[in-house]
């Protein structure tokens, strides 16, 4: 029997079983992967959203309209991103959990972006997933070289199951889904920001540049730490 058909109440995945599931998921559409996550882990399941677009949210609410969506409000987001959060929340009647952070006394992002991300982003994610067994994100392999071997399902640093249902999607797959389903997108994506993070740490990218070249530009930093496995 395939692991996706195994009764939910006897599931306690070993790393080997997660690897087998990953192989199965490479052949399944994202909606089936999300269905598996909901059947297996809900209500101890949530998903994170960066609000670059609402593709994963659209897929997920079609499986479970009440799925918990986490947005980490660092206090440094672009106004366009916060407006997108509200537009998506209203459009889907989203079960949205905003993780808000007390504004820092000084701009830690300028002095020490690694610690800023760790305190502001990863710390809030730790709070958001406390008590959960699994979480999902919209991470995709072709977003960056650092993500090209990302699994669809694996264990994260906390020991929770992390699922990336659209890890294998190309940019074209995403754009096709946006066009076919009239998905809400952050307006910054049409203004030179293919990857959108906090305002002080994100610049537009030029044609031909890596889509994430505008993140922490001029530094060696490429990831905020949310997706470390
Ligand atoms: S992206 Fe910049 S402002 Fe946002 S948490 Fe990381 S260092 Fe801080």
How would you sum up this structure, described in words?
The chain is of the alpha/beta class. The chain contains seven helices and six strands, in the order ααβαβαβααβββα. The chain has helices spanning 15-25, 30-41, 55-63, 79-92, 108-111, 113-129, 171-181; strands at residues 45-48, 68-73, 95-100, 134-136, 153-155, 161-163. A six-stranded mixed sheet has the order 3-2-1-4-6-5. Helix 2 (30-41) crosses helix 3 (55-63). The radius of gyration is 17 Å and the shape is globular. The structure holds iron/sulfur cluster.
Across the major sheet, the strand order is: 3-2-1-4-6-5
How would you describe the shape? Answer: globular
Average residue-wise pLDDT = 91
Radius of gyration: 17 Å
Q: Which H/E pattern describes the elements?
A: HHEHEHEHHEEEH
Q: Count every helix, treating DSSP H or I runs of 4 or more residues as helices.
A: 7
Bound molecules: iron/sulfur cluster
Label this structure with key terms:
single chain, alpha/beta, 229 residues, six-stranded mixed β-sheet
Provide a short characterization of the protein structure:
This protein has 229 residues and is of the alpha/beta class. It is 34% helix and 11% strand. It has 7 helices and 6 strands, in the order H-H-E-H-E-H-E-H-H-E-E-E-H.
Give the SSE layout.
Elements: H1 15-25, H2 30-41, E1 45-48, H3 55-63, E2 68-73, H4 79-92, E3 95-100, H5 108-111, H6 113-129, E4 134-136, E5 153-155, E6 161-163, H7 171-181
Parallel strand pairs: 1-2, 1-4, 2-3, 4-6
Antiparallel strand pairs: 5-6
Helix pairs in contact: 2-3
The structure holds iron/sulfur cluster (SF4).
The site of iron/sulfur cluster (SF4) has 13 residues, from helix 6.
